[in-house]
């Protein structure tokens, strides 16, 4: 499953559809009150941000079957898992008050909520491992 959703994240990042809400969450506006400054920032920084995400995605895909990863690899994993959570959470309109466990079994998005919950747990496990 992880290999699949990371592959989907790769497709989303490389498609670079500015109208996609999930991407807007990954690349938020830097200068909300100054469109010209924001456009300049996006022109300068966006390629580097995309490149960094793609490098992290490649590393996760290369180590997805590994028994162990090092601290640098764990950092990449954390970034990718968090990006997945941001995209999925945006698409599901998850907010502070959303109770993931309360989603009904017959909700058409129940699998997506379950994935979001699992990604949240996985990120927590990574943070705990890094904290040791």
Q: What is the first-to-last residue Cα distance?
A: 27 Å
The gyration radius over C-alpha positions equals 16 Å
Strand content: under 5%
Oligomeric composition of the shown chains: single chain
Q: Indicate the percent of residues in helices.
A: over 70%
Structural class: mainly alpha
SSE series: HHHHH
What's the story with the biggest beta sheet? none
- How large is the count of helical segments? 5
Supply the number of structural domains: 1
Q: Tally the beta strands.
A: 0
Outline type? globular
Mean of all residue-level pLDDT scores: 91
* Low-pLDDT segments, ≥5 res: none
Features:
0% strand, 132 residues, globular, 5 helices, mainly alpha, 70% helix
Can you describe this structure?
This protein has helices at residues 2-15, 21-26, 35-63, 71-92, 110-131. The chain is mostly helical and 132 residues long. The chain has one domain (2-131). The chain is globular and about 45 Å long. The mean pLDDT is 91.
Give the SSE layout:
Elements: H1 2-15, H2 21-26, H3 35-63, H4 71-92, H5 110-131
Helix pairs in contact: 1-3, 3-4, 4-5
